[in-house]
Amino acid sequence: MSAQRTIAKVVRAIEQAEGAGARVRRSIGTRSQRNFSPFLMLDHFSTTAGFPDHPHRGQETITYLLDGVVDHEDFAGNSGTLYSGDLQFMTAGRGIIHAEMPRKHDDGRPNVGLQLWVDLPKELKYCEPRYRDLRAAEIPSVTVDEGRATIKVISGQSHGVDSVKELAYTPVWLLDFLLRPGAKVTQALPQGWNAFAYVLDGNVVVGEGAEAKKVEQYDNVFFKQEGDVIHLSTEASATKEARVCTFVIAGTPLDQPVVQYGPFVLNSEEEVMKTFSDFQSHENGFERAKNWRSKIGDRVY
């Protein structure tokens, strides 16, 4: 018999300024939810402004572009473009400086997406930086509940469908649920994994029976570790589709301290101070930062 996971807490994403005039809704990395190992931050962005040249060390970022076009460039000579439905998995490792700048659309619509920061295990904090892109056309999907629910299996497993490949050092499942009116979905999860479900759009009922709770757009639902399934549903009378992204960590949370200062995530204050020194002196991973400026970071609309 499967046991459903119960809700530990629900956090509403708070809108705040970030980057060069961008606005994001943050539900992990706030006072209400500092982190949720190994997850460090979740931003839901909807913006025409961007994120000019900035550094990272010690974490991975997953960017899921829901609508729009975003260019990226780093000090190692990597560059590329994400389009609607694409994802980028970036490992900062020992150090990287990059820029992420959206393009302007003729109709004035914003670029919309999610960015998740994932902690790296202590032994990988100083690995070499790397990128992996996943294009929308590469993502398998499955339709269930007589056509009322469609799930994009970006990473992980759902209803007999496996994702195409592992994309992050820290194994993470990422499933994108489109729930039409009257949909009911049961998603299996291994016991002991940390899991949360973020509501991109619409209203969703999470859980069944006495544990059922209706949540709304911009709510992030954090589950307790006990249990091996979650239930998601929409009311038959709903006037619009609902969209839910569920992130699941493969394995137990990282058993390590988290010391974060802005874009640097290490395991001690001494490492953070050393990172500032390395960044300012262009050493130990930041050598290529000296005299480097991206071509896209000064883009202004």
UniProtKB/TrEMBL annotation:
Occurrences of domain Pirin N-terminal (ranges): 22-118
Keyword Metal-binding attributed: yes
Pfam families, A to Z: Pirin (PF02678), Pirin_C (PF05726)
Keyword field contains Iron: yes
Sequence positions that bind Fe cation: H54, H56, H98, E100
Keyword list, A-Z: Iron, Metal-binding
Residues of the Pirin C-terminal domain: 175-284
Transmembrane domains' residue ranges: none
Cofactor binding: number and manner: Binds 1 Fe cation per subunit.
InterPro entries (UniProt xref): Pirin (IPR012093), Pirin_C_dom (IPR008778), Pirin_N_dom (IPR003829), RmlC-like_jellyroll (IPR014710), RmlC_Cupin_sf (IPR011051)
Essential cofactor(s): Fe cation
GO molecular function annotation: metal ion binding
Family stated for the protein in its record: Belongs to the pirin family.
Name used for this protein in its record: Pirin
Source organism per UniProt: Hypocrea virens (strain Gv29-8 / FGSC 10586)
